[in-house]
Design a protein that fits this description.
The complex is a heterotrimer of chains A (about 400), B (about 1050) and C (about 450). Chain B is of the alpha/beta class. Chain B is about 25% helix and about 20% strand. In chain B, helix 4 packs parallel to helix 26 and helix 10 packs across helix 11. The two termini of chain B are about 20 Å apart. Chain C contains 17 helices and no strands. Classes of the chains: A alpha+beta (about 400), B alpha/beta (about 1050), C mainly alpha (about 450). Chains in contact: A-B, A-C, B-C.
Chain lengths: ~400, ~1050, ~450
């Protein structure tokens, strides 16, 4: 508050004199003196004592501070923060079920609610005490008055600043003399105090400390715009790398062969369900070993199968053969645009040559590939291959219909 | 139920100890801090190798991002899609019996082994050995190249070198008609090997061939010979049997036939359907069957014969036949408890005439088997529950090695096809010295083991997942194994090796098999089908109906007649280990860390000894004892084992390997950095004569205590804890008698009194889509732990080593809790199994406490774990009432990143995260499988059908104890079993709504033997209603 | 002033023309001395050694993972959390003394509040360290803060741990400001008495140019009042929230409604004990007897007696409720505590926390400095064990007997814990050396007031 006053009114300071200082030897005389000064209507003055003197506030006319209110507000802010954080993190942002308990419950949040209120309130109190007192204020003209140093020891002082509008060196001095001060002294202003520098040792220490603390930041900075092929640092690997082999990983145990953790099945072994004794279904061949002309019994021909076939056809075949199977797929068009010399246009599956082929042969083609068409046995399981063939048959039919209707002379 | 909870429940012996020494241990400050961390000397070395501690933070590699490569196939075969798994039927042969399998192949690499669902012998289920064989295939300690050994020192060499040597060597032998050429092989049912053997003998007429198998079925075969004069294989259909008597037989344990029998057992134990057989177990040591049995008599192994004889003497007259045996004179039969049970047993068997089955264990002498056949015949079981098939396999496997050694002087060249005889030779057979002699010895095996180091040549052998072969499954059907991957180290199969040695025109494994199968496989199509089906469908062994010969009265030895006085005569029994079998799986981390079914022991073997006997001999728990028989002796820790017969000490084979690998132990120079053996080998104690059990044993305690890493009772139990356990156990493992169940089926639902379970809020999610849930039937679980290994394999669960297990940091997502119940610690009235995994609670306590939301609930009700989000506060684990969450205290997956373990990386499931240090993990209901299934269904635009999603544990379970599926689908198996009247939620009173339902155990005690407390329960059965 | 200093020199009465100056002198001469007493050097040396051990442990921890500690399944929370709660508890006395006693106009507080507040801050620093390093991936704890990020990864605010973060950090910030605010006037007087420029600048800088203006004092006092008013509920809330970590879980032995008041009482209990333990030697070595009088210590001992009795009551009540609840798991948890494998820890706790403070019924003991320190230490040992018992003995045997286990600490557990003391004392000794240990201005105020009243 005092600071505010200062800013309000400032009289004409006497050059060279910062203030007048009066010394007393016990609290009572201080209080008495303070009353006198107060009644004279001085504003920019203050008392100094080694401990809070009981009854000085009324004697000086100090108003009650508003500190408690600030504390209250910030305290409540703490409470709100606590509850908001707990509610938002556990019940909104990341909901999780814990012991089958409700996502949010008041009771569980009380402890932290309380703690944060206290924390906020306490910090506020401390800081605003300093703030309102204008602290820290490391140097003041008073520091250079020898006797004033005992203000923190055993003496009591009244200081009237020369900046006070009522200040008049003579009048003020007499006033103070009247208060039975043990001594009255003028305090010089704080402009020629070369004597009181911060000790160089300390300055250097501080500077060095700052410099050192900057080094890591420097390193970060340099690291940011430097290039390296090394993988990043990872001091504690935790569970980033585990002593096991996931799919397709490297395993140095097999260095001598191919370093693959993934091993080829041993020749002649048969996995469960991989018996494949139905030649018709798995190879498209009938008993005689010729390409089968019928769909295998293990494969049911129905709408679902066609639908499936259409879907799979869309995935695996259209890129080359195109939506309608006329061989005008994306890949083809692209290759054509690039004028790939070796490129052969994919077959039009509606082509009668194809339409006449047995399903078995088609199955074989899809499985093992033909010309520059690769085999699809690995990607497409047999049932799906049959489904594709079924759909291809449907396509062929529809195309044929279309051609027929187109060539038919209109009546 | 108040009264019944008075029945004293307790879990381990430590609970009953009250000596000052022990109390001091209980109350000393913080136990002993400095001993086990960091683990000392050898233990630390193993620890280091299991999790190379020095680079924990570095993770996979240095401090930069790794470069990753994608290497697709250039010519991708039809039907192969990267990342889409394919399945292959194949088979694994163990002890001469083939197990039909279906193996998952990911990118052409085997990634998971399961039973072949289409084969009656497995029906999709599998055991611990089959599950773990995957890790064996990818074991970095496997032999990678031929080597020559001199004085145990290996000189690396090549196949070329060997060929150079072999061509000349065998040409010379051929000219000498193979004089001095000896072959030692494991027992096999493979037609191919048989065929090759024939051809081998043709090219080397004077060669001699021996077979040896440390764990064999000679007794059964001899017994059959005794009973029928011919060797037959006995098959039991437990699904038809009303009364099952197991004379030290373990149909639910680990054995070639157990999977099929487990299915039968399950079918006969279905109280909802009103089917409930009664199982009687007579055994010297606690077996999975004993755990599930309704009545269990713990007597010395040597006394079983006396009981069987007495039984015959009792039963025969009752079915109008003359007994061949004298009435029971044995003292132990006079024991009041035994007597009562024995009479009830006789009654029961006679009553269930034609619907009973007497099973005899392979560790019992031929006489008992003969008596078993006799009893089955008397009771008219043959044809209904018991059937026989022809069996042409070698009945003298145990003498094999001894016979060979007898001919030591003649041996010039010895070929050892698989097996590890130097390690597994019994104490009276000095095989090692044969190899020390001036002979050429060639050893084919997966590992460079003890035998390899004693031979002059070692040649790597192909794993069954890498090679073609065939075998006979237990029911005698022909099964074919096809390779899942080309051999990793260019190693041949035995057949291929023989083909090369005999300079056969056929070299390729596949062709060899086809040739051996002859007609069957001549036609390509037929062959393809056989390979596809994993064998010739319906090619069962031919059923035979042998005629029973009149038996002589068996002569009973002193041990057989003794009483049950704990300080009476001592015996030791030798049994194949339920984890590492005869030692061949010793280097398998999954199996070493698997808790042993009875005592939950990991990373060790011990002398399982009855506490009373121990007390009589002044032997303390976990103290070293010296076991000596006829001058031979070994020293190993003693483990107080309730349920062990008084005076009987159980020893398991397969430990104390000195040349196995970094897991099981390896001396230099086998491992650059030597590792002490896990456990102690008990082979030296055994002789051909005392193969299964030895009498006249002496035990001396040295007093020095050692640490045994058990996954239960990590800390000894005091009175408080014991009473606490007693009080709560009836609510945790609920059970009821069949009689009560029929009266009031939902009785078990009222075991816990709690107010109506209401929720304060409405759940924000209504699980409308899928609602995943699981049921676990305690009435069927045998505790065989196949599910645990299956889970390891499916979910990349790390092996942490003994020091970490001692700290209580084992990582199993699925554990099988074992509780003893009974007033008397030495003879528990009952033993319970309870598989516990994440219960996926709808109101999961773990979720609400995670500050970063790393574990949350999915819309399908899965309790999801986001490893990448987890920072490891471990609050969730604290708040989990089932303690099923597991935390990566170290970077347990780190060893995988070392170069030497490159190959082991291939065993990791690519679909599951390999967790990093500092994150929490737990059962995910195999979410990766759920997702895969959903994707397929979605592509086909349909909803998932019941049975399309299996969890790994469910697949492995041979008794169908685990059901998984969609609870919203009322027709689903899981929904139906969840609605069973005996269904209950573990700790339901916490109102956390677990998605796992346990089906209470229903026991079917014989009316004469219902204990008083149970009778009172029956009185109390009044369904209470709570408001 | 004499350059060679020994204890006798420190015992001499403060110089000064009047009481005010004597007070100033008594407080600031510690700061102004060129060299502190040998005792200080020895103590500081030891603290530094432990501090460096702590740093090594943390380094190793980052490298290896928290498996180096004894934590296991089922005891997933071991010593780190025990230590965290222990330190937070100690961190309560300071603010309580300065805030609550201030509001109740307890003038005697002025003698001890500065040191107590300092202790609070250092204790809280030690406390927050533990949750930070105990997580499985200690480079990621910042994920618990609501920092906006492109992946919408937010904290899960239903988790008591999330509440904890806010509670403890708020508590730390507020305590720090409260403490610093109190320091300002005294820093000013050090500044004004300073003989060297550096000293003058530094203290001048941190005193923010405080000159004791009456207008400033007016707002200063108001602010101080408000902070006090805010800290009072805060100090109660912090340990309540810490107790929620346990109380909101459903683990038998944790799932208890009396935890908040019980924890707060415990916190004040241990806090005061720690203040006594620290202040008695401090007043010896730094000649503050004139200011920190025996009555002050006695008053604090009374508080210790009161809170100790409260805590004892809570222990009893826990048992009663466990029995009254009718839940067998609850019942077992407490029987197991008292008579199970951790009985030794439980009875250590009882004898230290419930029995030893009862000695304070006797004025002789209350006013005996040596005994005060001893009992203070006992109480802190006891309070550490209380947290240990709550954490470990509840976890080691919960619902399913199959997963029962036992917690065995490793050497690293010990070293890290001791190291945290190294950190604490390093900071506290630096404070003793370079900052006014007593709020001189307040003492002067109180003196003036009494003087005034005397007239």
């Amino acid at each position: 508050m005092s600071q505010e006053k200062e800013s309000q009114t400032s009289g004409t300071p006497v050059p060279g004199v910062y203030a007048l200082l009066a010394e007393y030897h016990d609290p009572d005389s201080l209080i008495a003196a303070a009353k006198k000064v107060r009644d004279k209507g001085y504003q920019r003055w203050d008392c100094y004592s080694p401990f809070p003197v009981h009854g000085i506030d009324p004697a000086m006319g100090i108003k009650r501070t508003r500190l408690p209110w600030i504390t209250l507000c910030l305290g409540l802010t703490g409470t709100t923060t606590a509850f908001t954080v707990q509610w938002w993190t556990n019940a909104v942002d990341y909901k999780w079920t814990v012991s089958g308990k409700p996502l949010w419950s008041f009771a569980a949040n009380v402890p932290i609610g309380f703690e944060l209120s206290v924390l906020f309130a306490a910090i506020t109190t401390f800081l605003s005490m300093l703030l309102l007192n204008g602290l820290p204020r490391l140097s003041s003209p008073l520091d250079h008055v020898k006797r004033f140093l005992r203000a923190s020891d055993d003496k009591f002082f009244i200081v009237i600043e020369s900046a006070d509008p009522k200040f008049d060196e003579k009048a003020t001095r007499t006033l103070l003399d009247e208060t039975h001060a043990d001594a009255v002294e003028a305090v010089p202003t704080d402009d020629h105090l070369s004597s009181d520098r911060i000790p160089s040792g300390i300055i250097y220490t501080i500077l060095i400390a700052i410099a050192v603390s900057l080094i890591p930041f420097g390193l970060f900075a340099s690291a940011r715009n430097s290039l390296t092929t090394n993988p990043p640092y990872n001091i504690v690997s935790n569970m980033d790398y585990q002593a096991k082999y996931k799919a397709q990983r490297k395993n140095d145990f097999f260095k001598s062969s191919d370093s693959r953790a993934m091993r080829m099945p041993v020749e002649g072994t048969v996995a469960v369900g991989d018996l494949r004794d139905d030649a018709h279904f798995y190879e498209g061949k009938d008993a005689s070993g010729a390409f089968a002309r019928t769909f295998p019994s293990a494969f049911t021909v129905d709408d679902a199968a066609i639908a499936r076939g259409q879907e799979r056809f869309g995935i695996y075949c259209t890129p080359c053969h195109g939506q309608t199977g006329d061989g005008d797929g994306m890949v083809h068009r692209h290759a054509f645009a690039l004028q790939e010399g070796t490129w052969v246009k994919p077959t039009n599956i509606a082509d009668p040559k194809i339409a006449d082929k047995s399903v078995g042969e088609l199955f074989n083609t899809i499985s093992n590939g033909i010309r520059n068409m690769p085999g699809y046995a690995r990607q497409v399981p047999p049932a799906d291959r049959w489904a594709i063939i079924l759909y291809v048959r449907a396509l062929q039919k529809s195309q044929a219909e279309f051609v027929a209707s187109a060539t038919e002379p209109t009546k | 139920m108040k009264k019944s909870s008075g029945a004293r429940m307790w879990r381990s012996l430590a609970e009953y100890e009250n000596d000052p020494e022990f109390t001091k241990y209980l109350h000393n400050e913080f136990g002993t801090p400095l001993t086990d961390t960091p683990p000392n000397s050898a233990e630390r070395r193993r620890f280091m190798q299991l999790m190379a501690a020095s680079f924990s933070l570095a993770g996979v590699t240095g401090c930069r991002w790794e470069e990753d490569h994608l290497l697709p196939m250039t010519r991708q075969p039809e039907g192969v899609i990267p990342g889409v798994p394919r399945y292959f039927n194949t088979a694994m042969e163990l002890g001469g019996v083939g197990v039909p399998l279906r193996v998952k192949s990911y990118d052409g690499r085997p990634i998971k082994v399961d039973g072949n669902p289409d084969h009656p012998d497995t029906q999709g289920a599998s055991g611990v050995y089959e599950q773990a064989s995957l890790l064996e295939m990818y074991d970095p300690d496997r032999s990678k190249a031929p080597a020559q050994f001199a004085g145990g020192k290996a000189t690396e060499t090549t196949w070329e070198e060997y060929r150079k040597f072999g061509l000349k060597h065998f040409r010379d032998l051929g000219q000498a008609n193979g004089a001095g050429l000896f072959v030692l092989s494991e027992s096999t049912s493979s037609a191919t090997v048989g065929d090759m053997k024939r051809r081998f003998m043709q090219s080397f007429p004077q060669a001699q061939w021996f077979e040896y198998e440390p764990d064999n079925r000679d007794n059964e075969r001899q017994g059959a010979k005794l009973a029928f004069g011919e060797i037959v294989r006995t098959h039991y259909d437990l699904s038809k049997a009303e009364v099952v008597l197991c004379l030290e037989a373990d149909p639910l344990g680990n054995g070639p036939e157990t999977i099929a029998q487990g299915k039968g057992f399950a079918a006969a134990r279905n109280p909802e359907a009103g089917r409930m057989n009664r199982v009687w177990a007579v055994e010297s040591s606690l077996s999975p069957t004993g755990i599930q049995a309704d009545h269990r008599l713990a007597i010395r192994s040597a006394q079983v014969v006396a009981l069987a004889a007495a039984l015959e003497a009792e039963v025969a007259p009752k079915v109008g036949q003359t007994a061949t045996q004298a009435a029971g004179a044995a003292k132990f039969l006079a024991d009041e408890k035994i007597k009562k049970a024995f009479d009830a047993l006789v009654k029961d068997l006679v009553a269930a005439k034609g619907k009973s089955a007497i099973l005899v264990g392979s560790t019992q002498p031929p006489e008992v088997h003969a008596l078993g056949h006799r009893l089955n015949a008397l009771l008219g079981n043959v044809g209904s529950t018991v059937s026989y098939t022809a069996d042409d396999s070698n009945p003298e496997l145990r003498q094999g090695l001894a016979n060979l050694v007898k001919k030591a002087s003649e041996i010039k060249t010895l070929i050892i096809l698989g097996g590890n005889p130097v390690y597994s030779a019994s104490g009276d057979v000095d095989f090692a010295s044969v190899l020390k002699g001036n002979i050429t010895s060639i050893h084919l095996s997966l590992y460079r083991d003890e035998t390899s180091h004693a031979c002059s040549w070692h040649l790597p052998l192909a794993h069954y997942l890498e090679s073609w072969g065939d075998s006979r499954s237990f029911n005698g059907s022909l099964i074919v194994s096809q390779p899942l991957i080309a051999p990793l180290f260019q190693a041949p199969s035995i057949a291929e090796f023989l083909a090369w040695t005999t300079r056969d025109e056929v070299k390729d494994g596949q062709q060899l098999v086809r040739r051996a199968l002859g007609e069957r496989a001549a036609d390509d199509k037929a062959w393809r089908r056989i390979v596809h089906d994993g064998g010739a469908v319906g090619s069962m062994g031919s059923a035979v109906s042998p005629s029973l010969q009149t038996l002589k009265a068996v002569s009973l030895g002193e041990a057989a007649l003794a009483d049950l006085n704990p300080s009476g005569p001592l015996e030791v029994t030798f049994q194949a280990d339920p984890k590492v079998y005869d030692g061949r799986f010793a280097n398998n981390g999954w199996l070493q860390e698997l808790p042993e079914p009875a005592m939950k022991l990991t990373w060790d073997n011990a002398a399982f000894i009855n506490p009373k006997t121990a007390a009589a001999l002044k032997i303390e728990d976990c103290s070293l004892v010296t076991v000596s028989v006829e001058g031979r002796s070994i020293t190993l820790p003693a483990l107080m084992s309730p349920g062990q017969a008084p005076g009987s000490v159980r020893l398991v084979l397969g430990y104390g390997r000195t040349h196995a690998g970094v897991v099981a132990g390896a001396k230099a120079p086998v491992a650059a950095d030597p590792v002490d053996p896990v456990g102690v080998s008990v082979y030296p104690l055994r002789t051909v004569a005392t193969w299964d059990a030895a009498q006249g044993v002496k035990l001396a305690s040295s007093g020095t205590k050692v640490k045994l890493a058990t996954t239960q009772d990590k800390h000894p139990m005091d009175d408080i804890g014991r009473q606490g356990t007693q009080a709560r156990l009836p609510q945790i493992v609920r059970q009821d008698t069949f009689a009560n169940f029929k009266e009031t089926p939902d009785h078990v639902k009222h075991a816990v009194h709690h107010p109506k379970l209401l929720s304060l809020w409405n759940d924000p999610v209504s699980y409308e889509g899928y609602k995943w849930g699981m049921t676990i039937d305690l009435n069927r679980c045998s505790g065989c732990a196949a599910c645990v290994v299956a889970c390891n394999a499916e979910n990349n669960i790390p092996v942490v080593g003994k020091s970490q297990v001692l700290r209580g940091r084992e990582m199993h997502w699925l554990r099988i809790d074992r509780y003893f119940q009974g007033d008397n610690p030495d003879e528990p009235d009952q033993v319970h199994n309870q598989p516990v995994l994440c219960q996926h609670c709808e109101h999961a306590p773990c979720e609400q406490v995670c500050p970063v939301g790393a574990t949350m609930h999915s819309s399908e009700g899965l309790n999801d774990m986001a490893y990448n989000r987890c920072i490891g506060t471990r609050y969730c684990s604290n708040n989990c009432p089932y303690k099923v969450r597991r935390f990566n205290y170290f970077n347990y997956a780190l060893p995988l990143t070392e170069d030497r373990n490159e190959i082991e990386r291939m065993a990791q499931n690519p679909e599951v995260t390999v967790r990093f240090r500092g994150v929490m993990e737990k059962c995910s209901f195999c979410v990766q499988r759920i997702q895969n299934a959903k994707i397929l269904a979605k592509n086909a635009r349909r909803k998932l059908k019941d049975g399309e999603v299996h969890t790994a544990c469910q697949d492995a379970c041979s008794t169908d104890a685990i059901q998984f599926g969609d609870l919203n689908d009322p027709t689903s198996k899981v929904a139906q079993s969840a609605n069973s009247p005996r269904g209950y939620a573990l700790l339901e009173e916490l109102n956390i709504r677990p998605r796992v339902t346990y089906l209470a155990r229903i026991t079917n005690p014989h009316p004469d033997l219902i204990p008083a407390t149970a009778a009172e329960e029956a009185e109390e059965v009044k369904p209470e209603h709570h408001g | 002033m004499a350059n060679t200093v020994d204890l006798r020199d420190w015992q001499e009465p403060p110089r000064g023309e009047n009481t005010y100056q004597k007070i100033t002198d008594a407080v600031t001469r510690v700061v102004e001395r060129t060299r502190p007493p040998k005792a200080w050097y020895i103590a500081f040396g030891i603290s530094l050694v432990w501090l460096s051990i702590l740093l090594c442990c943390i380094g190793y921890l980052f490298w290896m993972g928290i498996g180096i500690w004894g934590n296991n399944n089922p005891v997933a929370w071991g010593w780190p959390i025990v230590n965290f709660v222990f330190w937070v508890g100690i961190g309560h006395a300071g603010t309580l003394i300065s805030a609550v006693l201030y509001l109740f106009r307890q003038n005697w507080r002025t003698a001890i509040n500065r040191a107590a507040e300092a202790m609070t801050i250092f204790a809280v620093i030690c406390a927050v360290m533990f949750p930070g390093i105990h997580v499985g991936r200690p480079w990621l704890p910042y994920w618990m803060l609501p920092i906006p990020n492109q992946m919408d990864m937010w904290p899960q605010f239903r988790s008591p741990l999330a509440w904890d973060i806010f509670a403890v950090s708020t508590y730390f910030t507020v305590s720090l400001m409260f403490w610093f605010m109190g320091l300002i006037p005294d820093l000013a007087s050090v500044r004004d008495r300073a003989t060297s420029k550096t000293r003058r600048f530094l203290y001048g800088f941190f005193s923010l140019g405080w000159r004791g203006s009456a207008r400033h004092w007016h707002r200063y006092e108001k602010a101080y009042q408000i902070l006090a008013a805010l800290s009072t509920p805060l100090v109660l809330s912090v340990h309540s929230v810490v107790s929620f970590d346990f109380a909101t879980s459903q683990l038998p032995g944790w799932h208890t409604t009396i935890f908040p008041p019980y924890f707060v009482a415990g916190a004040i209990f241990s806090g005061f004990a720690m203040v006594v333990t620290l202040l008695v030697p401090a007043r010896e070595f730094f000649g503050l007897k004139t200011l920190v009088k025996v009555e002050h210590i006695e008053l604090m001992n009374k508080v210790i007696l009161a809170t100790g009795t409260l805590v004892g009551y809570a222990y009893g009540m826990e048992f009663f409720i466990a029995w009254y609840s009718g839940s067998q798991y609850e019942g077992f948890a407490f029987i197991n505590r008292a008579f199970g494998p951790y009985a030794w820890a439980y009875w250590t706790m009882i004898s230290c926390n419930v029995i030893s403070p009862q000695l304070y019924w006797f004025k002789k003991i209350r006013t005996n400095m040596v005994l005060s320190v001893i009992i203070g230490v006992f109480v802190n040992v006891g309070m550490w064990f209380e947290r240990f018992v709550i954490t470990c003995s509840s976890l080691n045997r919960d619902f399913l007997p199959s997963s029962w286990g036992y917690f065995t600490p490793t050497p690293f557990d010990f070293l890290t814990f001791m190291g945290s003391f190294g950190l604490f004392f390093t900071m506290f000794l630096l404070f003793c050396r370079y900052l006014p240990q007593v709020a001189a201005s307040e003492v002067k105020g109180v003196h003036a007031a009494q003087h005034h009243a005397a007239h």
